[in-house]
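Researcher: Here's a chain I'd like modeled. Treat it as a single chain, no partners, no ligands.
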Amino acid sequence: MSNISTRSAIKLNQAALSRLANRVRVPSYDRQQVTNGIVHIGVGGFHRAHQALYLDDYLHLNSTNEWGICGVGLLEYDRRMRDALHAQDCLYTLVERSSEGDRARVIGSITQYLFAPDNRQAVIDALANPNCRIVTLTITEGGYYYIEGSGEFDVNHPTIQQDLQHPDQPIGVYGFLTTALDQRRKQGLEPFTVLSCDNLQGNGNIARKMLTSFAELQNPQLGRWIAERVTFPNCMVDRITPATTPPDIAMVAEFGIDDAFPVVAEPFIQWVVEDDFCAGRPNWETVGVQMTDNVHPYEMMKIRLLNASHLLIGYLGSLAGYTYVHEVMADPLFKQAVIHLMEEVTPTLEPVPGIDLSDYKQTLVERFANPKICDQLPRLCLNGSAKVPKFILGSLRDKLAQGGAIDYISLTIAAWFRYLNAQDDRGNAIAIDDPIADILTQQARRGGSDPQPLLSLSEIFGDLSQSSHFVAAVRNQLNNLSTLGAKGTLQQLLKSC
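Model: Modeled as a single isolated chain. Structure tokens:
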């Protein structure tokens, strides 16, 4: 890192790039000449550390200027991002952190940012613009209105009902997409590709089913047109990207950059994309994206190994009073638990082309232990009602069918149930951040050491409460967590292995 005084930090914007060029890497392409072939909905830390980085690399390496990004924020939560990016000409700093050092660069691939509550029509116009050929999404696992227990579309959600009844004033992602696609259809324009970049197995398949379900309710003819013409590639994304903190902003200032909303990430990055684009795409292979005909094995590997491990780390680590992922991984008990969980789910995975699973799992352990990332446990724990079904219940169902141990899968679920009591093992309060937090905490407290009240939530667990083997395993682990605490439970479990 530079020893530049933070007092000399230069406010980040387009005019400052020439002065910053001797401090960090900055965009060398002409951002004024870039057109936005991509509209991205849900600009957060991950998008800025992942897809936007790939596009920044692409604009540096390729002569074409047609693949810039128009970012879109739909939620009030996105107001801070709007304010930061508008003040900085949509530029921001990305810092890759590891024990080997910090590397900073300024990313310029986002050339416009639209905040839907300010001007909904501007978002519709951007999506309907013929230049827009791909719409990418990072709207979180819960943003798809997908009922995990049934696999159906949550048509009764208030956001869905509002957008069905007021198609000209959408507030949700499907409302904006269908309004824009209908406009393109009526004008004789080609549709765009919808590329989900969220941690969902079969994310493109889910996006297809949910969007077409919404469109058919709104306009059956439009629904058929979308089903026939729009493509929804599946993809797997991977890069650990913690939430930006005040110390991160101060750290970036040491590079000489005054940035209101930088992003920090680990060095590791991966993107595997199904090659199915109805309106063309960048030649992503030139910047390291792996294009394939079958993303499924990669998705399963990442979700069932990395994301499931994150749940174990988050819930068990929080119960034990830890704050950061690397602190949890420095405790041999928890490190062994993560390794055992990965071994337990490995038999459910398919062979992954070009990947040695043993090496991949070892790399995950090393990535989790990176002390420079300071990834906070609450980030891993939020929205458990959406994450648990998607990250671990698929492995559970496969293990129940295959036979074999489910000790650590059951422990992860039991740790979530114990966490939902909103207290750690020392009695300190835990804030439960989940759209259905009231229901979850009520059921957790009602059940105590009995998992049945939570397992009865069929929208999360489907029919799994009918598996006596699974219920008994969760009950055993939940009872241990209640009486022995997280560390005592791990000690007992590791002795029995």
